[in-house]
Amino acid sequence: MLSLTFAAFYARMVRGNLLETLGEDYIRTARAKGLSERKVIGKHALRSSLTPVVTIFGLDFSLLLGGAILTETVFNLPGIGQLVVSAVNRNDIPVVLATTVVAALFVTTISLVVDIFYSYLDPRVRLS
Amino acid sequence: MAAERLLEVKDLKVHFNTPDGIVRAVDGVSFTLDRGETLGIVGESGSGKSVTCLTTLRLINLDTADVSGQVLFKGRDLLKVSKEELRHVRGKELSMIFQDPFACLHPYYRVGDQIMEAIHAHDGCGKNEAKKRVIELLGSVGIPRPDQRFADYPHQFSGGMRQRAMIAMALVHNPDVLIADEPTTALDVTVQAQILDLIERLKQDFNVGVILITHDLGVIADVAQKVMVMYAGRAIELASRDDMFAQPLHPYTWGLLESIPHVDQKGTRLIPIQGSPPSLIRVPPGCPFHPRCPHRFEPCDKDVPELVDRGGHPEACHLSIEDKRRLWSEREQLRKKVAS
Questions:
Q1: Is there a domain that residue A36 lies in?
Q2: How far apart (Å, rounded) are the C-alpha atoms in residues B208 and B198?
Q3: What is the interface pTM, i.e. ipTM, of the complex?
Q4: Based on CB atoms within 10 Å of each CB, which residue in A113, B11, B19, B187 is the most buried?
């Protein structure tokens, strides 16, 4: 649900990156090899234009979590956001602490996953 | 026996529409290429060499460019054939090596896989067979331990090795024509010589026609049989290599030749061509070279000189052939005097 607001933004970003990548020299090489346009774009261009998207996604994820507090409260949806709000209202410190730790864990895990995925996307990034 | 005519470019014009005006990148260029022949295209930066060659493979964006003329490849006009037909020519019958090997390989894919992809673009052979062929090719272009190098990424290759990989990629289907767009400019001199040797060897082994774009006349003297000199998007002189170096006819070619350093002219200064190449948006009227030409006279800033055949040696200049012979020998004598 929440991610829908981001989807349009991502679509635009992929489009922009894709257009930029299509001007790269290695795209010309791919065309000169005689690859079909579908392969040139789907394989060669898309992959390089995805790297920045993955990076941004890692950063956006924490925003998404923060946004969850608002949306879940406003629309009365059950979830970690509402849990935090009700715990704060009840002065329930241990629950606030726990959710914060869980949220922090989430964010760090996601950024770790993003980093690993990044090195998979771009072999020049070494894991060491 | 006449060699097979592979490529015939007729009156090629490529104009780009930009907010500043029309860029006449290529303005009426014609040339031919036969099997087993090397055509060298020389000229300063921005003289239209690269655009000419990119257009022959239709690698420029036809939406933003105005292209006219013909590119006849074995009788077919590559500017008119369908996209699918063009795809079958690219990389299979007509391949290209680009200027900058650092930017021309996809950084995210293994070198071997990228070459394999070139095989599979035109050949449905199995993975193992393709891999075997790639390793063989990598070995034949002089990459040591090709079976291990197969799995490397471009960033693990040096510049010379990347260019070798590019050459291997261009050769996977034994093309009839190989276009090399300044294949050695990004490389240092020793590697440059190796790459040129490699192209020369492959030309003999596979009997291809080669178009070599360069701004290095030394390279031309080494490998080309025919030379085309370009200036401001036009061919201004076309000759066999021997004629070009022994009896060049165009003042611009003279300038190019005189700006090469010679070992026997130790201690003297090089003679550069005055000024810089014209903007392709506002090409000077008349002969495009006249503002920089030391021998200009009346018609030069009014009439565009046509390419006139002077005994199998076409060139575009208003000077008469007698004047040219005289002026060139005067310049040669002057150089000898300065040198001694």
A1: yes
A2: 13
A3: 0.76
A4: B187
